[in-house]
Design brief:
Keywords: Membrane, Transmembrane, Transmembrane helix. The chain is 85% helix and 0% strand. It has 262 residues and is mostly helical.
């Protein structure tokens, strides 16, 4: 009888321990799901930020499509952890947005880089995106070819953003007829690209800025020549006017002598 009681007690204790372990494992799984959901939600916000805050000139179509694909993939992971109807709707909207963008031929407008603060913000965004690319590569979320392409673009944009700023300033000076200042800013834009002048896109921009400088110099030379011609014309007109005055005086004096003689 005692043996039976001991056996029952051991079974009860074993069952209690098993139940406690089950509850502990269940709680750990719940915490792990919450942790994973929080991580995925952070990734959603991060990738959405890249889509929304990187200007069009620093986000070509293939890069933007990849970011859309990452958003949708993250939504799918999140739905597997935490099924949610609002998130399902959000995923459908994202997919529609991606399809619409993919089929559109409309060119997105570039955003001017107007000040140093904007440059710093964009460079921080580039660094963050570069880190995300490395993470995506390590997690097999991007192929080697796409990674190499985007990584090269980000390196190019680190220089381009400075050149774009000086180009913006050059255009502002040009529009306000401050040609010397415009030339100075175009030259500074060229200097920003000199370290990567072998890059085809950088070389193209350098040629563009050099052409703009040449056009301004040609225009200034033409204006100077026109001013010289106007000055010469004014001098000729003044000389002709003096001759006319002298002739008029001569004629008037001759008439006076005639009248006096008469």
């Amino acid at each position: 009888m005692t043996a039976i009681i001991i056996t029952l007690l051991l079974m009860a204790i074993g069952g209690f321990i098993a139940f406690a372990i089950y509850l502990q494992l269940k709680e750990q799984a719940r915490i792990e799901r919450l942790r994973k959901a929080a991580l995925l939600n952070n990734q959603l916000r991060q990738v959405r930020r890249y889509l929304d805050e990187m200007p069009a000139q620093y986000q070509p179509k293939d890069m933007r499509l990849w970011l859309y694909q990452r958003l949708i993939a993250i939504c799918d992971e999140l739905l597997a952890v935490q099924p949610d109807e609002p998130l399902s709707r959000r995923r459908r909207f994202l997919n529609e947005e991606m399809i619409q963008f993919q089929s559109s031929n409309e060119k997105r407008r570039a955003k001017p880089v107007v000040d140093e603060i904007q440059i710093m913000e964009l460079k921080r965004l580039f660094e963050s995106f570069h880190g995300y690319l490395l993470s995506a590569k390590s997690n097999k979320q991007i192929n080697d070819e796409a990674f190499a392409h985007f990584d090269e673009l980000i390196n190019w944009y680190r220089y381009k953003v400075n050149a774009d700023h000086h180009y913006y300033l050059a255009r502002q000076f040009f529009l306000t007829h401050k040609m010397d200042d415009a030339i100075s800013e175009y030259n500074e834009a060229i200097n920003q690209l000199k370290p990567i002048e072998e890059n085809p896109e950088a070389a193209e921009l350098i040629n563009k800025y050099q052409d703009a400088i040449q056009e301004i110099n040609d225009d200034l030379e033409l204006q100077q020549r026109e001013a010289e011609l106007e000055a010469e014309s004014a001098e000729d007109s003044e000389a002709e006017g003096e001759l006319d005055d002298e002739w008029q005086k001569f004629m008037e004096q001759g008439e006076f002598q005639k009248k006096k003689h008469f």
